[in-house]
Amino acid sequence: MLRSAKLKPLALATSLILGLAACSESTSSSQGENFDGGTPVVDNGGSTTSFDETALLANLVDNVMTPTFVSFKEQAEKNSTTLAAYCDVEKSVAAGESEEQARLDALAVAQSSWRITTAIWQQAELMQVGPLATNEGELRNLIYSWPAKSTCGVDQDTAYFEDGVINLDESRPYDIKNRTATRRGLVSLEHLLFSTELDHSCSIANDALADWNSRTDGERRVARCEFALEVANDLVDNSKVLLEKWQGETGYALELKKAGEPGNSFDSAHAAVNVITNAMFYADKQLKDQKLALPLGYFSNSCGLEACAEDVESPVAANSLANMKANLAAFEKLFTGNGTAAENTTGFDDFLDFESGSDIKEAMLKGIQDSNAAIDAIDGNLQQALVNEKEKVEHTHAKVKDITDQFKHDFINKLALELPKTSAGDND
């Protein structure tokens, strides 16, 4: 049953402690043509609402977005500690000092830590504003480069890190800070921690990998875990950079909260609100299209125009469904304003109620609820479902599309917001 009250954030599949294929009508609207009339508010960017958008910004920043970034940094640090312990066990087993079961147990703990870290980040994926959006998302990509990835590049850097130089060239010392995003971050860690194939994945072995496939399993596992620890430490550094750029007197969080004030980069609170809704369009372009429509074959993929398991987001760890659940949880938090403060839940649902858009609110809440139920109904992982129960994946896509259709059309129009440039004129 649909509840009119705010939905509590849904539990993630990973027990995270943070607490759609038909096309719809096209739209070229950039402002809400159906926006209710009213007295214009000074410096409100053309909006005619008297809803307190500054209060909305404050709650979303303080009680949803900031706690997510803080939690990610804290979990990244825990993840690094976990991987250090895992490496100690790998070395002990390789030296014949510990049993194989100890290695398997330590690996399982390291994999679980990666899943928890990834679950938090998948919420941050819908919060790509400020430091995560500047320079074409450079910082975001260093943390999570998907859909860009290179398992060969990760295998090469594993050998480079072990040697201390790049491709046996003594004039090129290895420094992960100088390496490309696809060799770093959570995508790299997925390959290092979950791939059971110890041979390198490069079609041609360069000098550093020339003898890799002939080395013992123990040696290769140790090399991989040591590079994984280096990647994890780099992840900690980047999580700290994110917080440094987000918090403080010159941080982007304060810029959002003080939108419309003299000297602020936003001429109105409404403009800052629009930056957050732009980020929420991740649910449309990435969740609906890239994570579901692409592997379903609705767009051309690696298999042509048919279901393609190899094009899922997280193929090695089979974590795709958990990622989508985390994306939906973040969308719901931003929509309802339900974050860390029970006494303040100012969200877009309240904005819609204020503007006589309660029907839109209810439709979107139902879409979130139905999308989660559709994911939960899938047996096994997404790769298996694309082969064995494609209709359930198609149903999930349809339910997510219900949310994004409302979001792109009625939501944007009712609140007099603008579509992101990448979505203006989008027919899907």
UniProtKB/TrEMBL annotation:
Alphabetical list of CDD domains matching this protein: Imelysin-like_IPPA
Domain Imelysin-like, first and last residues per copy: 67-406
Keywords: Signal
Signal peptide segment: 1-24
Entries under InterPro entries matching the protein: Imelysin-like, Imelysin-like_IPPA, Imelysin_sf
Subcellular location: Cell envelope
Chief place of localization: other
Record's protein name: Peptidase M75, Imelysin
Originating species: Pseudoalteromonas phenolica
